[in-house]
Amino acid sequence: MIVIVIDPGLARVGYGVIAVNNQKPGAVCYGCIESNKDRRTPERLLHIYTELSALINKYPPAHIAVEKLFFTKNITSAMSVSEARGVILLLAEQQQIPVTEYTPNQLKQAITGSGRADKRQMQEMIMRLLHLSELPRPDDAADALSIALCHIHIMR
Predict the structure, then answer these.
(1) Which CATH number does the domain housing residue 68 bear?
(2) With CB atoms counted within 10 Å of each terminal CB, which end of the chain scores lower, N or C?
(3) pTM as predicted
């Protein structure tokens, strides 16, 4: 089973493609889709849509898992992330791929057992659980991989 996991953003979308065989997850690939900040927002959203479409076509997933929005202060940032999330959710719906969403605390709890884990603790657990040779970078890609592990843990 293939799961595509996404950490949404307008400037950078973290993603991971995870293969689950015999209930053991393995990272097929992970990285980021970056949009040019000098472009208009509609162009940036189209770029995200196009790149994610190509990823879905290359690795057809059974599920897509996405991080839920959680912002307490920066409304401008929340708006741009929600626009990117809208593109992601639209693409999944067009492809008839089920989407599951997780909060940051759910991710931390599922990966480390603590809702208060820091980024470094999360990356170390991701590296260990996915048998990676190094800490996943950049942070957005690591965040996407945490979504994958949370999703797989909950789906069991």
Answers:
(1) 3.30.420.10
(2) C
(3) 0.91
Q: Which of 38, 67, 93, 143 is catalytic?
A: 67
Catalytic-labelled residue, pool 43, 93, 140, 143? 140
What are the pLDDT digits (tens) for 41-84?
Answer: 999 999 999 999 999 999 999 999 999 877 667 777 888 999 99
Query: Among this protein's residues, is 67 annotated catalytic?
Result: yes
What are the tokens at 122?
């999360």
For this structure, is 7 an active site residue? Answer: yes
- Give CA–CA dist 114/36, Å, rounded: 36
- Which structural domain, as residue segments, surrounds residue 71? 2-155
Catalytic residue among 7, 101, 124, 134: 7
